[in-house]
Amino acid sequence: MSSDQNTHARRNAPPEASLSDVHRSVRVRHGSLLRRIFAFAGPAYMISVGYMDPGNWATDLEGGARFGYRLIWVLLLTNIMAVLLQALSARLGIVTGRDLAQACRENYPRSVNWILFGLCEIAIGAMDLAELLGTAIGLNLLFGIPLTWAVLITGADVLILLGLQRFGIRKMEAFILSLVFMIGLCFVVEMFIAKPSLSGIASGFIPHSLDGAQLYIAIGILGATVMPHNLYLHSSLVQTRNIERSKKGIAQACRFNLVDTIVALNAAFFVNASILILAAAVFWKRDIVVNELQQAHSLLDGILGSKIAPIAFGLALLCAGQASTLTGTLAGQITMTGFLRFRMRPWLIRLLTRLVAIVPAVFVIWIMGDSGSYRLLILSQVILSLQLPFAVVPLIKFTSSKTKMGPFVNKPWVKIFAWVIAGTIIALNVILVIQEVGAWTEAAGRYGWMVLTGAIPLGGALGALLLWLIFHKDESDSNESESVRASDVLAGAAIPMKSIKRVGVALEAKKSDAGMLARAVDLARTHKAELVLIHIVEGVGGQWYGQQTGDLEAREDERYLEELASKLSTDSRDDSIAGVHAVLGFGDVARELVRIVDDEHIDVLVVGGHGHKGLADVLHGQTIPGVRHGLDIPIFAVKQTRPDAD
Q1: Which of 34, 60, 517, 568 could form an S-S bond across to 275 if both were Cys, CB 3.0 to 4.6 Å?
Q2: How far is residue 256 CA from its own chain's centroid?
Q3: Same domain? 52 vs 197
Q4: CATH number at residue 581
Q5: Does 341 fall in a domain?
Q6: Distance between the two ends of the chain, CA-based, in angstroms?
């Protein structure tokens, strides 16, 4: 099948449900305005925890301690950006029924999707690093657990938090909302004790130019506030509402989700601004440089003279880390399924992501001490900011497409505002990259050329990808006037089907082969075609040595196939089957089936479900989608019944 045919098939295939276990699980009731708002409230609050996660604490604390109230306007600007981008993300999910990752998969080539998925996973890893460090520091501050041990303990929180998913999306939303409320309450207490300058806060809303360290912190704030994984997550979470799929129902869902987004993200803005204001009122006012969260905690006790302030600080930090842990797991699920159609158990995704985060965290803490964790937090937010354009640009393009969005396409002013935001994010990141590469080159001394040798090609490649995403013209948009007509479909259906001369059947050497074989034999007899029996040896020997393997599995499979072919040839009645022969393949099932079908010139293929469940489904994957996308012949999928004993 050609790449054009593959793309066409992806675009016209019905989308799998995003977060299928909770998809459209929340009933939207009619009634009073307050009742309808409550029904839609939830997704944005789950998103908001990503805007107040421990990574934000590091950038907000450093911004307030080093520059006073002067960066409040940066927080306000990024919050406005976040509201618009999250509203577009919610609108994409509601209108199209696809999350952002699914939309990318359906509109971009596979190679681009792999790169976008890799960048997204780097961002989720950076975010998870911030969550892990924040939770660990919270445990350290509240209970005195050494930071290294606290980091290792956080690896187990996946088992506790993912248990919430069993209770449904509304219970998860309620849990997240309670943590958000706790964080907000803690900072109300902090503000009451710290007594910040009201005039200083007011002056902080006045924009001014940024350079040097201020620019670095400002970009860190941007990365910590407008988080790329949240754009994927929000477009999926809004699909948990069982809305009426009419123009009126979709418009109502968009309005109420906008309200949900504005309220939730303004709560996040209050928390972020409170952290920065607290740092300005307590540390900047006294010329104290804060380079670790533990230092901020201990200084609050000494300076404010209150035991409540440091406890509230540590409790809020712990709540922020735990809340963002859950949403990070969901984001990992969504991107893996959306970009790759690869499903993995949520706990396994969480465990792998957390292990990737634990290793650098333990290493940095061991080498640099507690202050290293703080620098790692800020670096993680800068990484998030650098990945942000690769999520923002596709989001704006998709929501500006008349073909995809119909009457809900972005209005001209929204489109202009969105591209201004994207341009600002890209410009700030370019400046940051140039500054950082320059600093690394200077620090490397006579080995600076090695830094440039690695940085310039990588930066150029990512820049080229970003330009491609910006100027890529979707085929469906270039043919907006085209619509499917019944006459066209009927004309295509009138074309005679290619005669069936060879029928292939993919067998598994199990009793459940009976159903597939019956269908294949029936087809071969009907069309007086040749029957090709196929089996793929997918064990260790088949994977590593291919046809050279001589292990017991391969020998038994070959004997089974030859015996089956011999009996079918002998029992064939009235020569209704043109012939029977067997073909053995080795290694990856989907790839080998595609190869054998091409080599044997098979006209129809009969396949069955593999019947794997749980961890086996993760390890073996799904065969039918891979075969379907690799072939352009009819495929009969036969549901296999699980035999009582094999």
Answers
A1: 60
A2: 24
A3: yes
A4: 3.40.50.620
A5: yes
A6: 36
